[in-house]
Fold:
Amino acid sequence: MKLNYLWIAIYLIVMADSSHSFKKWRCPTITFSSLTATISCNCDIPHTLRCDGSIRSEQKQSLNSLINQVKMLSPQESVTLLDISIQNMTKLPGRMFKNVS
Structure:
């Protein structure tokens, strides 16, 4: 009898989790191409996006493009942790992450 309750509890937990998101999470595809920047993004851990590379110039534009793409992600690609490791980044522009949630 206790085993049946355990299976019911597991079933309810799985169903509650699947009803939250109808589609399985997938790593977002962040496209970035520039003559002055090389940035690539990948997901080693679910819901975590790691972007690394280097920027030679146009730092604000390059970072704005990256952040805007993250802002526009679908719920199936939503990210809870954004790890940015970009070489030659000397300063983060003010309010860069405003309205990123």
